[in-house]
Automatic annotation (TrEMBL), chain A:
All residue ranges annotated as the NADH:ubiquinone oxidoreductase-like 20kDa subunit domain in the record: 25-136
UniProt-recorded name of the protein: NADH-quinone oxidoreductase subunit NuoB
Gene Ontology terms for molecular function: 4 iron, 4 sulfur cluster binding; metal ion binding
Domain of life: Bacteria
InterPro entries named in the record: Complex_I_20kDa-like, NADH_UbQ_OxRdtase-like_20kDa
Lineage: Bacteria, Pseudomonadati, Pseudomonadota, Alphaproteobacteria, Hyphomicrobiales
Automatic annotation (TrEMBL), chain B:
Gene3D superfamilies per UniProt: 3.30.70.3270
Ranges where the 4Fe-4S ferredoxin-type domain occurs: 33-62, 64-95
PROSITE patterns in alphabetical order: 4FE4S_FER_1, 4FE4S_FER_2
A Gene Ontology term for the protein's cellular component: membrane
Keywords, in A-Z order: 4Fe-4S, Iron, Iron-sulfur, Metal-binding, Repeat, Ubiquinone
Name of the protein this chain belongs to: 4Fe-4S ferredoxin
Superkingdom per UniProt: Bacteria
A GO MF label: oxidoreductase activity, acting on NAD(P)H
Coiled-coil intervals, chain numbering: none
UniProt-listed Pfam families: Fer4_7
Automatic annotation (TrEMBL), chain C:
UniProt protein name: Hydrogenase
Annotated TM spans: 71-93, 105-127, 245-261, 267-285, 297-318
Family annotation (PANTHER family): FORMATE HYDROGENLYASE SUBUNIT 4, FORMATE HYDROGENLYASE SUBUNIT 4-RELATED
GO molecular function: quinone binding
Amino acid sequence: MGLIPNFKNIATRSPWIYRINAGSCNGCDVEMATTALIPRYDIERLGCQYCGSPKHADIVLISGPLTVRVKDAVLRMYEEIPDPKVTVAVGVCPISGGIFRESYAVLAPIDQYIPIDVNVPGCPPRPQAIIAGVAKAIAIWRERL
Amino acid sequence: MNFLTIFARNLKQGPQTEAFPLGPAFTPERLRGRIEFNAATCEGCRICERVCPANAIRFAKTPDGMTFDCWHNTCVFCGNCEFYCPTDAIHQTNDWDLSHVNADKFDMVEHGLIPNQTCVECGATALNTAPMVKNAKPPLSTEEYAEVRARCPKCRAKYLKNRKVPA
Amino acid sequence: MSNQIAILLAVLLFPGGVFALAFGLAMKGVDRRVAARLQSRVGPPLLQPFFDIIKLGFKRTMVPAAANETVFLYTPLVGVVAMLVAAALVPITSVYAPDAAIGNLLVLLYLLMIPGIVLMIAGSASGSPYGAIGFSREMALMIAYEGPLVLIAAAVAIRTGMGMGGWATFSLNDIVAYQQAHGSFLFDPVMWPAVAAFCFFYPANVGIVPFDIPEAETEVLEGPLLEYSGPVLALFKIMSALKKVVVLGLGIALFFPAAPAGIVGGFLVWLVKMAVMMLVGITAVRLSMGRMRIDQAFVFFLKWPLLLAVASLAVVVVV
């Protein structure tokens, strides 16, 4: 009995991250890359790892306001991520649309298409804020395992 | 063989990583972060609402007075509101950790209320905004400022016009 | 009968099985930690690969619609089993000697080829174009590096066999025993081309940065592994961890098996050799180089390691 929850605690120490660019300006993407690539923020310390395939991912970071053209691709990509998964919206664009809100080319609040769990507002957010958001996502992920 | 010296240097220096999720994060003093609104010094000119590129700021008239709302989830931290605010009622703090679970999405709001008041001179109902007295010469004393503040816009103008300017 | 039980235990417990798995994953953890330190980061915890495997056990496995489900799901199993058997073939001086029935260099060479073939089959069975690209790249790379490996093995076998008065010996026990008696091949100038060729070969075989072209995550999104998720992906991770142990162990057995007698001493020396091979040949190489293009890698392998291997074979036969 006690073994399975224990394994779950261990499993939460290995969240693999996948990022989806839903029409972002790359500002948030750069900050996300920063969390992994710059020694100062080293997200690998938490066991995180950016993976190249959506099928390996546990935590999805979505940036960008979900432009009309990219919507289908993003939804399909999201479907390909195996459960249990947690979604983090990075930057103000996916959360509300930010400065692109009410544009005809943008389907902004992304949570009307994809269930979002954690929001990290900012334009772009600081790398530390992204790490804090990932930490919150890990807490949610533990309950879903 | 340059990479070997880099390896050696890195090994000698040790990790440069911040302690952040496990410890405090480095935050610059003047980081442009969360907006903070001070209703007491707002003069109600609504320039911040006008200059906000993301329409994050909204003023609304309610029976109690005028409300100020800044939704952090669409604010882009550009600092226009702080720059244009004539009375420094809006400030950008260096608080950057705005991450929250999605259920709290619409609670991420900086809320402020400029209450209504009754003008001490004519009895009309008007907003208790900070008076625009930056250019008054000579500068108003504290008592004068309180008197101006207690009036409606029309009576304020009258008060300032009739103000005895010492020679 | 006791013979078979000993082989079974070797496959499931000590040099193969549990030990090789734990050791391979621990090596991966050390590798990641040291790599992080060399990049002046803190790095993941040492047990991170174990966490990853356990985490993958909790995930759902998805089979793409275009995939052949049976092949897709069961190929990695073949790879893991092959690597478990291969780990039982590799001798550890004065600690473990494989049973004479299985301890053959040629068998090991065949088994070492299986992970690459598994990756190829998995990539093509997934029905993904990236998997297909990974398949073709893996095949090109295998063609390039398997040749030198066979020649290296032949050089070692002939050197040992001629030293022992025959023609060629493919028994791993004999190779280790001969070097114990006559000094390691690492210090034998005749064998230096073979050693150099092996130093080029093993980073390619374990699939690290200059030669991880089939699984390049920035180009072909991890190629054959793209469509895998959950426990089946964990099998691939286990396979590559086992493969690392086998390849490094093979290098030690072929060129530098010298170790003091006694189980503890022999094992410690073996650990040190493994660590040196991994840190110098894998971690440092991985961090200091960029990824080659597949044509560059192909030409590179057909040029230098093949040349060195042919030279070593010629020198061994002539001298």
